[in-house]
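step 4 of 6: structure.
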Amino acid sequence: MEAYVQETLAEELKPPVTSKGVIGWAKSNLFDGWFNSLLTLVTLYFLWKVIPPLVRWAFIDSLWNTTGAVCRDADGACWSIITTNLRFILFGFYPHDQHWRPLIAIVLLCGLLFYSRNRNHWNTYLVYAWIIGLVVMGVLMRGGILGLPGVETSQWGGLPLTLLLSIFGLTAAYPLGVLLALGRQSEMRAIKMLCVVYIELIRGVPLISLLFMGSIIFPLFLPEGVTIGQILRAQVAIILFTAAYIAEVVRGGLQAMPRGQYEAADSIGLSYFLTMRLIILPQALKIVIPPTVSILISAFKDTSLVVIIALWDLLKTTQSTLSNPEWMGFSREAYIFVAILYFLGCFSMANYSRKLEKELSTEEH
Amino acid sequence: MVADENAIQAHASAPEKVPFWLDPKKRAIVYQIGVLCMFGLLAYYLISNTLNNLEKQAIATGFGFLNKESSFEIGETLIPYSAANTYGRALVVGALNTLKVAFIGIVITLILGAILGVARLSGNWLVSKIAAIYIEVMQDIPVLLQLFFWYAIFYETLPSPRQALNPFYGLFLCNRGIIFAAPESHPAHKFMLLAFILACIGVYFFRRWAKKRQDATGKALPVFRMSISAIIGLPLIAWLVYGAPTTMDVPTLTGFNFKGGITLSPEFIALLLGLVLYTAAFVAEVVRAGIQSVSKGQREAAMSIALRPTQVLNLVILPQALRVIIPPLTSQMLNLTKNSSLAVAIGFPDFVSVANTTINQTGQSIEGVALIMAVYLIFSLSTSAFMNWYNKKVKLVER
């Protein structure tokens, strides 16, 4: 009996030209059926109508370092409004010759943030580094010691103010939010009630009403003669607001913990405090890192609302520049610049959150 | 030995009394009393300070100011209002304006968000990428900045009323807003509205009946087509019966402004545009997640029993996707409503804006802020009540 088995591989047939390479890709992704083809053509036409004039406006015809009067006669974008007023937009009324101080503070902050990106660096030393870093930034901004001239907080403005409000807003709101979440999960009725009412009340009202409360009503709460700066009052409002949202995120993490974790902690005789500190919170807080980052992004965007209670944040300094007769009418350029700054901040945070999510989810498998 | 056993028995029958600080129940009571006392003390401290301060500044407390004459004008009103009316009425005007922006904004946002969400999942690479870029960019720019941007665009790029852009007959674009022609008021409109409401009620009961019939007999009626034709047809019949009035109220330029037609103010358009474009990005993400949550097998199973594509969507995909979509969608709608309070920054007379003017004029800051909070709380709480009802209704009934 002879077996007929082919001993050599059959010659590989190449796929047709139309199903591979650029043509194949375009065929399956852009011209797949008459509807998709039509959609692609319409979109391409639309892009062709929009992109070239936009590029022309933003780059080719644009002016980068002129006076406002020259800009008015030009067709393109007037980026001169940014280059000429950059220092005011970024630093507000901070004394002009001292601008290097907020600049160093911002660079320091960015460096710390960048270093903290890597989860291998998350340890006790990092906490110390942050504490030292924040103190150094505070000293740089406030001055008054080490030969630095003092700068009143009422002169703080621009980007440092925006960053200050969001960084301190989150660092103070986080522990408060965790406490509120624990209170909401508590079996003690009175405490649970207080926390539920607080969280739902805050989440039900817009941030602007809390900012109003901070700027108009808060002074009435204090005994006579005691005053608190406008920035601090807005900061308190942002902290109280953000804490309620963090509490809800953390509650999600607490509820995701299996019952067995609590029972295991009970069985080895841990107290409530130790159960939370050693067993529950480390796991619960870890799984809610991604939603926490989106709260951080919201908080960062929401700091722009302080413009309504007349704090000199990034948006307010920009508006003030725009009300200067020389630069009136160049809002598009100015707002696009601020939008790019906010976008860079939010986008890098969102990106980081996605990366972290991926890392955390692969770890478990 | 015997003595030992006795001791053990005694121990078991009469357990050692646990001191109260080691008894979790009693301890919990102590904690709660402690927290409540602290809370009470803090409240007492703040309230007494406040009362002291108010007395010093000679501000009367209470809501009596609501009945006083407001003496400020409001640019846009849904109900008749003048400076001679009371603060109370001014606040109602503001609340109605908030509802107006929220309602129109939510409708447009839902449509735009759904389109963007579907576009994001499109097999067309170009469309999907453009949707992705839109979603990412819009989510990462503060909504207040977007409001300022649109408002500035309106003021800086559009001409004055005299040189208003007139893309087609009856529509004008200028820095006073968008002015367009509207049908002249006619008694027929009332009956058309009535016919529309009747059609909606009829469709509601018809759908219920059709569903019952389908459950009983398995026969499906073309419910969607019949509903649409009723909702459009009935008002159309009313319009024809009353002589089909076609006169339009076309805006004309008189002096420095337009007369006639309907005017949408720049503030309103900027607010609407900002809120809609911002929230639609979030809605698109919600829609995308909802559609992706329905597993591929569901679609394949539906197709294998020979359902038509529309049936696959209506009977299999959407009911399951909506269960995932609706809760986050409601919170986005609520966000839009809360964000509409930013109208105060560009001068649209919404509730917060009117309340802010009231506070500035009367000095009744506590009452004013309390009113703002109360109004938004009512919106939020009624929405979450609806959500709970809906969640119960669509909850998976498992065996």
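step 5 of 6: annotate
 - Chain B has a mean pLDDT of 84.
 - Strands of chain B lie at 171-174, 177-180, 182-183, 248-249, 252-254, 257-259, 262-264.
step 6 of 6: archive
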